[in-house]
Every structure is written in structure tokens, then in C-alpha cells.
Amino acid sequence: MAQEFDLTPDPRILQMLGEINLPQWRCLAELIDNSIDGFVHATRAGAPIEGPEISISLPMADNESARVTIKDNGPGMSFESLENAVRAGWSGNDPLFNLGLFGMGFNIATARLGLVTEVWTTRAGDAEEVGVRIDLEELSATRSFKVPRQTRPKADHASHGTTIVVSRLKQDQRSYLARGNNQKTMRKHLARTYSSLLGQSEAGRIRLTVGGVRLSPRRHCIWNEGRVVNFPDGSCARAVEYIDLNLASRLYCTSCMRTLAVSEKVCPTASGRCNIVEVKRRIHGWIGLQRYLHNTEFGLDFIRNGRKIEIANKDLFEWSDGDVSEVEYPTDDQRGRGRFVGEIHIDHCRVSYTKDRFERDDPAWSEMIRVVRGEGPLRPIVARQRGYEGNDSPLYRLFQAFRRSSPQGKNGLWSRVLVVKDNDRAMQMADLFEQDESDYLADDRWWELVLEQDRDVLGEKVGGENESSLPEGFLDIESPTPEAPGVVTDQLLIEAMPAPVFAHRPIYEMSRKYIHPTYRVEYEVQAYSVDTKDPGFPVGLPWLLKLEDVSTRTYAFMVDLTHDMFRSTTMTPVDALLIELTYRTVEFLKGQAQEPPFALVLADFRKQYCIDSRLDPQEIIASASSVMSDLARAIPQLVPDAEGGNIFQELDERDKEVIFRRMAHRGVPDHKALISEGRFWEYADPEAIRAFFSRRPDLFLDGKFWEDAYTSLDFGSVVVTSQVRESVRTRYDAYLRDLVWIINQSPSDIERASRDVIVRATCSVRLLKSDTFD
Questions:
Q1: CA-to-CA distance for 301 and 309, rounded, in angstroms?
Q2: What angle do CA 254, 255, 257 make, to 5 degrees?
Q3: Shortest CA distance to 254 belongs to which of 104, 361, 102, 368?
Q4: Residue 120 belongs to what H/E stretch?
Q5: Measured distance CA(681)–CA(55) in Å, rounded
Q6: Rounded CA gap, 739 and 260, in Å?
Q7: What is the pLDDT of residues 369-380, one digit of tens each?
Q8: Alpha helices, DSSP H, located in 86-203
Q9: For residue range 563-590, what is the model confidence (pLDDT) as tens digits?
Q10: Is the pLDDT of residue 486 over 60?
């Protein structure tokens, strides 16, 4: 009988590794990690690689000859190092300070993509390249891991680097990789994943090309760190919050790749291979505000040794008490859009074997959460209700000032929340930021729009004190020329006098590139508000659009905002501009195969550029529900502590039943506490909230939730004062009736309602936004 067991794994294990569901870009990332580690090792050894470069070639067609090639100019490997590098489960990397970890990444990535992998490597001074060919089907057939050593001569003995070629790609992989759009998506992921290392790494600035395209680091389009919002109470909020905290050192086993507990001095595995080292730990990075809102493009990037492991993660925007998890952000935006972004470096935290997630059971992850977002809920009212006080974490500070996507109250300023009202416009400018357009790298263009929105709220003229000078020669007005040169008359002297200068005040909100969504006709438009006395502007004309710069095809749209035409709810300057652009588009398309009707072109333009004025049923309902939710959450703070439970007893039985039923459905653990403390209103029917306001308007007005005066009104006559107060109560009650009506409608109900009814109801929603409650 044999004296030992043969525990060599079946070669099919490599094929099984290929069944791990790793996205294609992550497969490439595993191989890129190996190259970057090679550059870093060379630098640490005192022999840095000059001009480090990684090049990835992707298949151009879906056929049997398709292959993926990854080539670098790293230090290269010896035959022994190559043998270890391709062996599943072997890793010579220090797990603390390198990208490679478990020794499985190479095998998982290559087996996922194809059945045959060749690796060729050489060092400077070597006379030849050494290589290995791994054919998964051949290994399975021979049931052996042994493969022959390969060599090939090289022309330049000074050359160095490693090349990996994956061929006989799997059908689904080659089909995916050959598509141009998929390659673009992979480049986007990789540019973001390696954004720190592509900028400046320990090994220098690494050049990475994928499919012939050099990747540039993907930067976040955030507000300038110098943007500070000052509040009346003397406090301020910053658009960017920085984090840099050194944690207490901990013991770490480099063999078992685990951090020891504080009480542990030796590794619990007690393996003879255990190697205990003391590790310095640090959490650093930033969180801040994106210059635009988006449904998915927000969240925090978590980074290990310069590589982003998790991108746009939203876990820290939820709070859990151990039983129930609640999303806290974004909840104030009707469309569910967010803008909190950030980059958090946690090099000492464990990651999964596929390197796509930090391990949540690692104590280091919990430490990071406490540093970045604090212990309790981000919502201040909920935090106080749950007994949490004193949160001064970066995310908490950002949340208090900027969680909303529109200003608080009827006359709130957009500069207080740093939001561009026309979010489509903000996103278009962000695209130019991505394209490295110099005018859009800083946040000035976004800030101009915010200031213009504030002036509109305050009722100031467009432009105000911040008038911008026009480009030289732009919108020049020719001076009158005397009809009879040399003949001096009083009239000629008058005509020769300099004409008064009338400023053309920029309208930033309307100045942009307009593109018809179907026919792709483009117009670069600079919009200006003009004075009615301006001699260069025809008398009585409400607006004028003319081509000002032929080389750039830039149009000047001049508009008299005081014209009677715009004293209308159905005609705005944007409508005027879109009519002009529609006319020019129809003229441009005349005689062509596609000659659309004027009405269709205008409808398309309005659909693209009049989003904010659309009466979207779902958004109307969401907005009304958000306002009612704010009102319900505020009541416990507005009602004296001793009255909360008594008010519940005053409700009729139907309203109580609704509250109990909703608490049960949402799994409220202690409904009695919520009732006794008066915190049951979030579960109440909207009509019950309206009825409560009608009984106790004094709790909501006089600056408590809305600014309008109520109990402070005093006309010296009890009768007159009572009548005026009743008028205020009735007005707000009417607003609330509209709010309740909207909440109880379905989108199809809203679609069937008359336009006037919807307009009135949406105005009520805006008027009911709190002036003080946050």
C-alpha cells in the first residue's frame, strides 16, 4: 500500500475557478494588479521602471481567433518566479502593501476569459524570454498540472516585461469583449478603479491603455473645496469634508491575512507559518458634493492601496439598529437622486477573494463607519428620539446642510444648498468636465447658475451687480454715420456723440448648447437680457435671435424680460427661444428627405429643455408625499412634550386603527413608546394631519413650521383679529386639502385631471414647504 495520500487537486479545479462570476473588467483588473505590483516592487528595490506602461489588447471581432493580451514593461520574472506566479493559491505578495492578495486572481481571471493562457516574461540582461502555456482542456485530459518550460530568444537584451495572452476565448466572453460599447464601459470602470494610481502612484505615473485608448484618471465633478455656506446662526457648511485619522496600531498575521483582536498577542491559528507584525492604521480621504444630481452616480468609493475596491457604494447612507435598516439618503429628492460622493482609503481592512468588496465582519470596517458617519442616525430628529447626541462626523455635517436637492421653504436660496435647478444642464456641463474642457474644470459655471437662481427668488433683475463683459466685438452696435461728412450741423454733432452704453446682462440659465434630440441640429446660444432703450434692439420687440459668431456658430438671444408678452403663465423666454430654434431647424431641413412639421420639432425641443415645467404625475405625487412626510416628522417637535400622548387619544377610532395597522406592517417594535412620546404622526393618514392643523394652527405658524403670522396677529379688535387669523387658517387648510388630494391620487388619476386643477395643487405643494423646519 502507498505510504502517503496524494492531495494534488484535480486540474479541473482551474476550470471551476473560471466559473466564478467575475465581470470582464474585473478580470482585466486582476491582471493589471499584477503588473502594478511589479512596478511597485521594482521601486521599493531601488530600481524603478522608467515610464511604467501597461497595454491591453481586446478582440475586434467575435471569431475563434479572438484573444486578449496584457503587456507591461515591468521588471519581469525568473523562471522560478513565473512558476509560482501561475500556481493557484500561491502568493509572494505582502498582503498589506500590495494589490495582489490570495494568489488566485490570475487563475480566476484567465480561466474566466478563455481556455488557453500563455505567459512570457523577461528581465533586463536576460538573453531570452521564458514562458508557460496553460491549456485547461489539455490539463484536464492528462490529469496533470505539469507543463513544459518554454523559451524564446529576444532581440534586445535590455528589454524587460511580461506578456499574458488569453486565447480560445469562451463564446460569451469573446462576444462581449468584441463589442465597442462594452469596451467603452470597461475603460470607464478601469479608469475609475485606478484613478489614484494613474495620477501618481508609488511607482510614478503609470500609463494604461485599453483597446488602443489611453485611460485618464476619472475625477469626481465636485464643488470647489472653498465653497462655504454661511448660515444666520453663525455656523457654516463646507462643500468638501476631509478625513485623516490615525488609528491605534494593531497586530496582523501576514500568513493568515487577519488582524488580531486587541486582547490577542499570537495568531489563533497557531500555525508554524504565522508571521505577526505591528500595523499602523489610518483612515483618510474626503466626502463632498457633486455638481449634479443622479439616480445612480453618487456614493462613496472605498480604496485599498490606491485601487478602488467598491465604487459608488451607498451602504453608509443607511442606518440600522440591528433589526431594521432605513435608507436616510436620498429621501428629500422626488426623483430619488443623490450627490454625496467621496473617496475613503482603508488599506488595513480585509477584502473578499475577488477583491470586489471589503469584508463587513472585519472590525476595521465598523471603525471606518464610526469615523465617517458616526454612531447614530443622520436624521437629527430620529437621532434624538433614539438617544444619540453629539454626532460631529463628516457625513453628518454634510447631511445636515446639503441633504436636500432644492432650497428649504418658499423663499429659500439655492446658494444655501449648492444645487443647479436645471439638473440636465448641470449634467451636460459635467460631461464637458469629463472631456477636460478648461472652462468647466472649475465650478464657476455652476456657481453662476446658482446665483442667477437666487436673484430670481429675491426678485432681482437678471445679471444684477455681477454683469459679465462680452467677448470683444460680440453684440457690437455700430455708431451712426453722418450723411454729409465735413458739414458740421447741430444734428450731426448730436449724432456724432457717443451712444449711451446699455449692458447686455447674461442669462446663464439659458446660455448653453441646444441639440435637437432627433435631428441632431446644434445651436450654441448665449442669452442676454437687454434694456428697452437699447438702440441696438428694435423698439417693441420682445426678443431677437441672431448669428453673432460665424466661426463657432454662436447665436445671441437677446430678450426684453419686461415685455408684456412675458406677463403670462403660458409664455416664457425659454419658450421664445425654442420657437426660434424650431423655425431655424425646420428651415435647415427643408428639401431634405426628412422634412418634419414645425409642431413636431417644437414638441421635441420642449420635451428636452422644459423638463422643470412639465406636469409629471409621478413627480407631483412624490413631491406632495415628501412635504407631508416633513410635516409629520415635525409635529413631535412642535407639540409640547406632555401633550403627545393626549393628542393621540383625541383622534377618532378610524385614525387610530390606521396608525396601528401601519405600525404593524412596518414592524415597529414598541408602538406604545411612539404614542406616549407623540411620535406616531409618520404612520397617520394625511387627512388626520390636515385635521390636526385645523384644530391647532398655533403650533405650525408664527415661524414654527411656516413663517406666516397667526397668534402674533393683533389689530386692536378681538373681532377683526379673529377674522384675520381665521383667514390665515383657512388659506393653509386649502393648501393642505390640495396636498391630501394629490397624495390620494394615482399617476393615471393625475393624467385625467384638468390642467388647472393640477397647476393649483402643485402651487399648494410649493407653498407648504416648511420655512423653518429641517
A1: 8
A2: 60
A3: 102
A4: strand 114-122
A5: 60
A6: 56
A7: 999 999 899 988
A8: 105-113, 136-142, 171-177, 180-193, 195-199
A9: 888 887 778 899 999 999 999 999 988 8
A10: no
Class of residue 590 by CB neighbours under 10 A (exposed 0-12, middle 13-18, buried 19+):
exposed
740-757 exposure pattern, b = at least 16 Cβ within 10 A, e = fewer: bbbbebeeeebeebeeee
Give the whole-angstrom CA distance, residue 705 versus residue 768: 9
Cα–Cα distance, 457 to 72 (Å, whole number):
57
Number of C-beta neighbours around residue 36 at 10 A: 27
- Angle, helix 718-743 to helix 755-767, in steps of 10 degrees: 120
> d(Cα 537, Cα 107) in Å, to the nearest integer?
72
Tell me the three cell numbers of residue 725: 387669523
Q: 12-214 adopts what CATH topology? A: Heat Shock Protein 90 (3.30.565)
In the DSSP assignment, the letter for residue 558 is: E
Helix H or strand E segment including 645: helix 644-650
| Rounded Cα gap, residues 41 and 85, in angstroms | 14
* Distance (Å, whole) CA 113 – CA 28: 9
- Give the CB-side neighbour count of residue 24, counting CA atoms within 13 A: 25
Question: How far is it, in rounded angstroms, from Cα 128 to Cα 339?
Answer: 53
DSSP-derived 3-state class of residue 421: coil
Show the DSSP H helices in 560-640 as ranges. 573-589, 598-609, 617-638
Tell me how crowded residue 208 is: count the other CB atoms within 10 A of its CB. 24
The confidence score (pLDDT) of residue 210 equals 95
In DSSP terms, 326 is beta-bridged to 319
The C-alpha cell at 236 is 457654516
Which run of H or E residues covers position 554?
strand 554-559
Q: What is this structure's pTM?
A: 0.76
The arrangement of strands across the sheet holding 213-214 comes to 150-153, 128-135, 114-122, 161-169, 68-72, 53-57, 207-210, 213-214
pLDDT for the residue numbered 478: 40
Tell me which H or E stretch contains 69. Answer: strand 68-72
Q: What is the 3-state secondary structure (H, E, C) of 439-481?
A: HHCCCHHHHHHHHHHHHHHHCCCCCCCCCCCCCCCCCCCCCCC
| CA 659 vs CA 143, 386, 676: distances in Å | 67, 20, 13
| Cα dihedral 506, 510, 514, 518 in deg (nearest 10) | -170
Domain boundaries, the chain: 12-214, 228-416, 461-613, 617-767
- List, in sequence order, every residue forming a beta bridge with 207; answer none if it has no partner: 53
